[in-house]
Write a structure and sequence with these properties.
Blueprint lengths: L12 E5 L4 H12 L3 E6 L2 H9 L7 E4 L5 H9 L4 E6 L14 H24 L3 E10 L13 H21 L5 E7 L14 H8 L10 H12 L10 E4 L7
């Protein structure tokens, strides 16, 4: 019996955005359990503190920030010393048929899902806050690359833009030994999918379209993110890791 673990995050400092709930929260907690020092950020201070209290170990940090705000973005980056990992989880959904998808709806969703994380990464690279052999993971969606359901066009377009830009970043940042990937979940049981235009009965019907007959849990996605953050994936960059319970098989 040995302590060998290629997925260990010991000695790494990882920034997780959107860490106040859902995938971001679970990712921060699981990364801390694997030895990383975690910096969490989000807009909701109360929920962010709930995440912070669940982190394992010492040396963690909490920064309240709205990444769509230029000043908050700059403040967050300036407050960092350096990091080895970046997980960009913050996102926003929208269900809107194409004929009702006006420019303002695209602007609202792209601002959160695309421009905010891309600008944060740009600032971190420009200000040399990402260490050599760092890993960047965008939380995208199968809606951007393989699943095109009714009314999901605005959200899917923002995620498609994210996946495309990820590949360009992987090409450009490879010379700096910085890897860039996405995880692309199917439907995951978080507050993100609640309170929209879809009823519980519709959710149950949709769940039956998944070969494993269930939606994912945040931890299912967190484990994939951990793989991409760890040295176990040191030869993986420019990749979209689909984690969807088999949904895109159809």
């Amino acid at each position: 019996m040995t302590d060998y673990n290629p997925f260990s995050l010991q000695g790494k400092t990882i920034l997780v955005t959107g860490a106040s709930s859902g995938i971001g929260q679970e990712t921060a907690i699981q990364c801390s359990r694997l030895g990383a020092k975690i910096i969490i950020t989000g807009r909701n201070e109360e929920r962010l503190k709930e995440t912070f209290m669940q982190l394992v170990g010492e040396g963690h940090k909490l920064d309240v920030a709205d990444l769509t705000n230029v000043d908050d973005n700059n403040m967050l980056v300036d407050n960092l010393h350096s990091i080895n990992g970046l997980v960009l989880c913050a996102g926003k959904g929208l269900t809107s048929p194409f004929s009702f998808s006006t420019r303002d709806k695209y602007d609202e969703i792209f601002d959160v899902n695309f421009f905010a994380p891309i600008e944060l990464l740009r600032l971190l690279v420009k200000k040399k806050k990402l260490e050599k052999n760092s890993s960047v993971v965008f939380v995208s969606s199968i809606a951007g690359i393989a699943s095109f359901s009714f009314g999901n066009g605005v959200y899917g377009a923002s995620k498609a833009a994210l996946d495309s830009t990820m590949r360009f970043c992987a090409r450009e940042l490879g010379a700096k030994k910085i890897r860039v990937n996405t995880v692309n979940p199917g439907m995951v049981n978080t507050r993100f999918i609640k309170g929209g235009a879809i009823s519980e009965d519709q959710y149950k019907i949709d769940m039956e379209s998944y070969p494993l007959k269930r939606y994912g849990e945040p931890v299912d996605i967190a484990y994939g993110i951990i793989y991409l953050l760890s040295d176990a994936s040191s030869w993986v960059t420019g990749h979209s890791l689909i984690i969807d319970g088999g949904k895109t098989l159809y």
